[in-house]
Write a structure and sequence with these properties.
Elements (H helix, E strand, L loop, with lengths): L6 E6 L3 E5 L7 E6 L2 E8 L5 H20 L9 H19 L5 H17 L9 H15 L5 H21 L25 H16 L5 H19 L15 E4 L6 E6 L11 E5 L3 H11 L8 H7 L17 H11 L15 H13 L4 H8 L3 H7 L4 H4 L1 H5 L9 H7 L5 H10 L5 H4 L1 H18 L1
Antiparallel strand pairs: 1-2, 2-3, 3-4, 5-6, 6-7
Helix pairs in contact: 2-3, 2-5, 3-5, 6-7, 6-17, 7-8, 7-11, 7-17, 8-17, 12-13, 16-19
Length: about 450
């Protein structure tokens, strides 16, 4: 016996039709109005064609009147709409394969706060008063006022649900409540001073040597590179650094020295098919060399060979080739052992993110503007100015303190003192035990130094 197929009767061309599924005797009304492009489906509850046609006509006329009066054409529970948005977010998170980022934050907000409170409300009935009740409920649930950034995530997730509801005709834009944020804006984040960073990196070799053998030892070996690399580049730990591969590192020719450039694949602000990257500090030559030494595949290769061969292998792997886990836990242990866990300025615990904060602070301290920094660190100039404004007085510290600039004693010392060999390079040598040749640091300075030495030798003869 052949399978039954759906039946369709056109009531009004392009506007109303009756559809009966193979597994039902009753007709379903499908109708469309001018202000709403998608077909609306409603059960008529009858198998009688004449009655079904009249019911469909009534549905259509009612929808037109509602739309004309600026009211929602359909009524939907918040939970039903939010679960569709939730499914879309879950697909994006699975595609990104990361446990961090905005979509994860929105998912958490939907599951923990928004659906539990708003779930039973019709989405077009969530008024300003209802949202205010939610704010009170949330504060009582947590026992305090959530931070400004946490509330911003809740509001963004709620707007995703409202956007979808408006698009589907479940509510109008006029019915969207204004979402206030009563959280206190976050202040300065915990970071490191240069002295503390030097203390940490001096402690690292001893800490690595004291680690238990096996996987713990390998994690500590990797952290000895991971930590100063994050402090030198300002990359986001976890997201941006986790997915960085050897093939993503480029070497660019430069008049004074070769420059390392990283093509960043994943992260908070990285969009699909939109290339983003960062120039790496010269100290990263040493970190890359140390990572090469940890990789068994590159045992008989030079660093330049590895970079030229563009290997699709993760940069930050353990020496057995596996992906690292528990870096956050081990980093906290490192800080505790080094007695550097608590930031004395903020009174808060430092985290891996403190390394990024330190790196950006160094750029600000060098006198770079927020506009110059934003592309390098993939954070807006507004956010940089907001979170790093405490550095402004230090940018002109010498002038404020009345210090003058000292001149060089002779030609050779002047060349050496002006070679770009800042504390970042010193940190790299501390943590890796390696050193960077002056010719790689600054080819021009090397040439000038050689000429000056020859001139000194000729004068002595």
């Amino acid at each position: 016996m052949p399978n039954k197929v759906a039946e369709t009767i056109v009531v009004r061309e392009s506007y109303i039709r009756l559809v009966r599924r193979p597994d039902s005797d009753r007709w379903q009304a499908h109708y469309k109005i001018e202000s709403f492009n998608s077909w609306i489906r409603k059960a008529t509850g009858t198998s009688n064609v004449k009655e079904a046609k009249q019911i469909a006509e009534d549905f259509w006329h009612e929808a037109r009147i509602l739309a004309k009066n600026g009211q929602a054409v359909l009524s939907k529970r918040f939970k039903a709409v939010a679960e569709i948005v939730q499914q879309d977010l879950e697909q994006k998170v699975n595609a990104d394969k990361t446990k961090r980022g905005s979509n994860n934050d929105y998912l958490g907000a939907l599951k923990t706060y928004l659906i539990p409170f708003f779930g039973a409300y019709n989405i077009n009935r969530i008024s300003q008063e209802v949202f205010s009740q939610f704010c009170v409920w949330r504060r009582e649930k947590v026992g305090r006022e959530l931070s400004h950034s946490a509330q911003a995530n809740h509001n963004a997730a709620l707007n995703l649900v409202f956007d979808y509801a408006i698009e589907r005709g479940y509510m109008t834009s006029h019915q969207r409540p204004a979402l206030k944020n009563t959280g206190e804006a976050s202040g300065r984040r915990p970071d490191f001073s240069n002295k503390e960073m030097e203390q940490l990196l001096k402690f690292l070799p001893e800490w690595v040597a004291k680690g238990r053998k096996g996987r713990t030892q390998m994690i500590r070996e990797l952290l000895a590179v991971y930590v100063p690399f994050a402090a030198a580049t300002g990359m986001r730990t976890g997201t941006e650094m986790e997915f960085l591969e050897w093939r993503h590192i480029e070497v660019h020719a430069n008049p004074n020295e070769p420059v390392l450039y990283a093509n960043i694949q994943r992260g908070k602000t990285v969009k699909k098919n939109a290339k983003q990257g960062a120039v790496l500090h010269r100290s990263c030559w040493l970190y890359l060399e140390r990572l090469r030494q940890l990789a068994p595949e590159f045992k008989d290769k030079t660093l330049m060979q590895v970079l030229e061969e563009q290997h699709p292998l993760r940069l930050f792997r353990l020496s057995d080739g596996s992906q690292p886990e528990q870096l956050t836990k081990q980093f906290k242990q490192l800080l505790e052992d080094a007695k550097l866990l608590i930031c004395p300025v903020t009174g808060e615990e430092r985290t891996l993110y403190s390394l990024r904060h330190y790196a950006i602070t160094q750029l600000v301290a060098q006198g770079m503007t927020a506009e110059q920094i934003q592309q390098q660190v993939r954070t807006s100039a507004t956010m940089i100015a907001k979170h790093y404004n405490h550095m402004k007085p230090l940018m002109n510290a010498s002038k404020f303190a009345g210090h003058g600039s000292a001149g060089a004693d002779d030609e050779i010392s002047q060349i050496i003192n002006h070679t770009p060999n800042d504390h970042m390079l010193h940190f790299a040598e501390l943590s890796t035990g390696l050193s960077l040749a002056l010719v790689i640091q600054n080819a021009q300075a090397t040439g000038d130094l050689r000429q000056a030495l020859k001139a000194k030798a000729a004068a002595a003869n």
